[in-house]
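Handout, tutorial session.
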Amino acid sequence: MPPEKTKAAKAASLTLRHLNKDSRGGLLTVESTIPVGHGYGSSTADVVATIRAVADAFETGLRPSVISRLAVEAEQASDAIAFEDQAVLFAQREGLVIEHFGDALPPIRVIGFKANDGQLVDTLALPPARYSSEEIQTFSMLRGLAARSIRFQDPRLLGQAATLSAKISQRHLPKAQFSTALGIAEQVDACGVQVAHSGSLIGIILDASAVGIADASRRIAHAATAAGFKDVVVQWIYSGGGAVEI
């Protein structure tokens, strides 16, 4: 329940099979406030919660690596949310961790909003990006930059990596007014800009410990709204707090 949660239903069946409980069943109810089709990871949240719930029903705990493999089998491509606050480089279509970065992301605040008039993106219908050799070389550099940002808990290094990655994504899944978002970030001296690689989301990254962060957040939110971006929300990442809609 509800019946359209087909990925969650498949995840439940796969988990039962993994636990050798194929003959067992039950009622699964999925309740979520996460918007679908924008890059928030709504389907992976449903699937991972389902896998954990089924395992818990049999008083069993599953490792994040096992949960991730089941999630990929259920939905073809999955985020790494089963690893919670561990920062990992994750192969989303194989369900494998390529690299553990050894810590969580540095504390940041992200002011997110929807581009492209908030149009939905069908992840399964979206063909995998075919990156050029130059882009692949850039990703190797970004991997090192991300590792360094996590090691030293440096939000600005993380923002630089995110911005370069977002610019590459712009050549494969363009976001309307992406340059506008970059301009807003520059105006407030933000750490950088990130995008959903399979959705409509854009986020501007701030150092959660920076002086004047509340004022910077308001300025970004007002500028994004004035530019026509939809559903502006502030997210705290590993710095306390939750989500606030502006």
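The second record follows below. Compare its token runs with those of the first.
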Amino acid sequence: MFEPPARAPSSLDAASTRLHGEIRAVLFDLDGTLADTAPDLVAAVNKVRTDRGLPPGPYETLRLQASHGARGLIGSAFGVTPDDAAFPGLRDAFLANYEAGLCVQSRLFEGIPGLLATLSERGMPWGIVTNKAARLTNPLVKLIGLADGAACVVSGDTTPHSKPHPAPLLYAAECIGIAPAHIVYVGDDLRDVQAGKAAGMATIAAAYGYCGDSLAPAQWQADAVVERAGAIAPLVMSLA
């Protein structure tokens, strides 16, 4: 069985000095890394609350769970886990709301369009590896303007496993025809770094994303930590 790497701490300075090797492609997480989807995700879970006569939950608190999908958002909004009897109904209502308003306020993060343009100009393929289900990923990628440029789009149900298992990243590497050792994976969650390391890829922690509410990105043992999307291109190009 796959076991994620241990969560040993490291400093931001140390994390920022370990990126090395010849990088030939970049893979990105979607929510919280390429796109700021939290406004629509939070709106969907808050509609579940208001439909049940509850006030909306605080945006900033719920935003932290946006990379964790239904499990994280429903857990934060209702204090339930997937083991609770109420969870399936809440999840289904949330997903229905989200699918109906998939890309109302969602936008690419500042710096992402320029980053992707730079990668394309340099002939460096880039792709998307997300835990979001394909029925949500594919239309969102199209609506937000990423479909034409992505060399691959791997969703949470594309392979039998989702992150932090390395299977989705290894599948993406196979799709683009580049060995994992020459790929860097960028994500805003600890499981992204765990998956990237398990796949044998370099990793960059996107500290500008949602990042959860437990360990800080500097403690994820990523090979680099960036505070803004615009810092990714110089890191990658220095090793291309």
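Points raised in discussion: Confidence is low (pLDDT under 50) at residues 1-17.
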